[in-house]
Amino acid sequence: MEKITEKVLLEKGSPKTNKLEQIKTLNLSKLGLKLQDLPVGLLSCLRSLERWDLSGNLLQEFPKNLELPALRHLDLSDNQMEDVTTLESLSGLEELKMEDNLYITVSDNYKLMVLLPNLRMYNGKDVSTTANHLRYVYSENLRTRIVAVWEKTFKLPDPIKAKELSALETSFVNTARQQVKFGPSSVTDFTKWKVEILAKEFLRSLVEPKAEPESNETTDTKDDCETSTPTKRKKTAETDTRVNLTPRKRLCTDLLRDTPVEGSPRKSSLRPKSKTLTQAGPVVEISPRKSGRPPSTPTRGQTRAETPRRASIREDGASIKREENLNRDTGSLPTVKGLGKTQPLRLKPLHVLQCHSKQDSSEDFSTQLWACAFQPLPDSTGASGGSRLVATCGGDSLCVIDCETGMVMKKYKVPGEEFFSLAWSTVLMSRGGGASAQHCSILAAGGKRGLVKLIHPRNNVAYGEFRASRKSLSVLRFNHRQGNFLFTGSYDNKIVLWDIGGVDSQYNFKVVQLLLLETSATPLHICLPPTSPGGHLLTACDDGLHCFHTQLGANNAAKRSSEMEITFPIYKKEDKDHDYHTVDGLSFLNDDIVASKNYLHGSIYLWSWSRTKAQRPDKKSRTVCAVVLAELQWANTEIPYLALNTCPGQVYVVCGDDKGRLWTYHITDLQRNSFQSGKPILPTEVLEWPTPERKGLGQVEGPSINSVAMDPELHYLVALSDKNMVIVWKREECS
């Protein structure tokens, strides 16, 4: 047995360095080590350690309170482990090996899955679904039974004294351990262990109730907001005479009226047969007409010419010619903390594609395209970067497009489906044979049928589906820190959190429902705070912007209503002809600043999430005023559901309008009193519709831009129209 010293750690660690803080991988296997041979003080210096091999030793337990914040992979196989609770301090651990430990039981396995909140791989298998079931569903069942035991037999003493309370806790915990029965007998030890923890938590919650926080922060905009219960917006276009849509623009609700949704539920645990993605057919690329310099600020009242239905389109893939951008002097404003110092970008149109056509027809200028998102690029640490691959959906198809070449790399069609939303994520794929799991990018898409399709584009496989709702799906959003957590919003006014787990080499997967949020109208967009995606959820709905508490576990219910509604100053101007409650654009610009857009309001609000959340909601209406920082001038239009998006990396906000234009805002500086001054901030640049030409039949007039997306570095900007066109813009490098 070799004594563990700083010299030994430096020799057996990598990369080779003379500082313990820089070691990322450490191999201490087969050294005959026991607990007393692992010096906690010395090992605590390994702040960057990511992988640690301790296999083949004589460890009965892990050193208590040893915190290694960067540790993600730990191998304790072939030891003599008995007490697994000593691993609790390794909260960031994602992969653990415990094979060939004679005394480890099924209950110990379950304890590890609960104690280690980020554990995904255990002994080479993906256990994320099982782990989340234990952490939330199983624990919730135990908690319900514990509460029943309390209500039947116990009550708090009056007055509460420490001695009496201690005796009460002992009696209550022992009774709960004896009376609460749940799960198979093989995990009785785990159940009793968990019951003891939950019983103590429950009693503590009774003795120390959570006080509703008082807001110490005053806001400048409180007087400008309505705090009474807001007027609710009518939910369907057919009963709302104020929504004047052009014949080519159709609401999602119109699509639902046209084709009834079949409501046959499907068990999510059944794995459907894998489908192979079809290679893209002929992609129609429209050649542009170079336009002159457009006006700086669009004017209201301009009419749109009807688009001819028949056209001869160029199919040679010719790229669009460069179009000069507008430059706008935004002036020099005081910097608001948290915004970057990047320079405004120049963008030029690169491709206009028709790749969602019905029956691949080049004459299809009616299919609506609804959602697009760039693929994240995972690396070994789970972080992500930029990509030039963008996924788009509309009609019965989903496409993955290479923005540089304009080629459709993958195309997935589901006859009879109408895709409304999609989302990328990164999950773990186990490879078997003792090999480490690898990160892989997957794509989820849903729409009219209420089914979520799961796709692995790299391997050209649509590997599964599950029913998320009996009604159509309006929005999908993954938790960016927990890639297997998927939120789905649907037309039955519900948002559901699913754990879709990972996949194995045969594409087996399992889906578990973790949380149900009930909204008062159709959810249109879902946003998770960048710094705490597991704590709160913001959803933009047809009747307003709502905030939900989404923390799992503890004493939280699995079915919840809105925690509060966030109101805006424009609500004060509502009358019988103007209802501004529909929030049809929502996105975080950075960790705190949110960009949102209200239907019929020709501006975009920038507001502070932290300062808004810190306020105390009105007791009756449960509303709070958004702490508005600035207002961005946008187009005047009566077309709803023109979604905005943000690029935090370049601090850009972009939103299309009903004439094919893209309004771009470079938000590096915000004037602190800009909102109170009553003067909206002008766009940095308005990118005019590139007016593509169809061979022999002239130019295509500007359509409505339903959705936009940008890669993290804004090398590419993609816009989707209501006329079956995908427009790709590219960043123009300065010479």
TrEMBL record:
Location of the Leucine-rich repeat and WD repeat-containing protein 1 LRR domain: 7-197
Residue ranges of WD repeats: 466-500
One GO CC annotation: nuclear origin of replication recognition complex
Composition bias type Basic and acidic residues, residue spans: 209-225, 251-260, 306-327
Keyword field: Centromere, Chromatin regulator, Chromosome, Cytoplasm, Cytoskeleton, DNA replication, Kinetochore, Leucine-rich repeat, Nucleus, Repeat, Telomere, WD repeat
Gene Ontology BP terms: chromatin organization; DNA replication; establishment of protein localization to chromatin
Compartmental location: Chromosome, Centromere, Kinetochore; Chromosome, Telomere; Cytoplasm, Cytoskeleton, Microtubule organizing center, Centrosome; Nucleus
MF term (GO), any: chromatin binding
InterPro entries for this protein: Leu-rich_rpt, LRR_dom_sf, LRR_LRWD1_dom, LRWD1, WD40/YVTN_repeat-like_dom_sf, WD40_repeat_CS, WD40_repeat_dom_sf, WD40_rpt
Region span, Disordered: 209-340
SUPFAM superfamilies according to UniProt: L domain-like, WD40 repeat-like
The organism's place on the tree of life at top rank: Eukaryota
Main subcellular localisation: nucleus
Domain Leucine-rich repeat and WD repeat-containing protein 1 WD: 343-730
Entry's family note: Belongs to the LRWD1 family.
Protein name as catalogued: Leucine-rich repeat and WD repeat-containing protein 1
Native source species: Scophthalmus maximus
The gene coding this protein: lrwd1
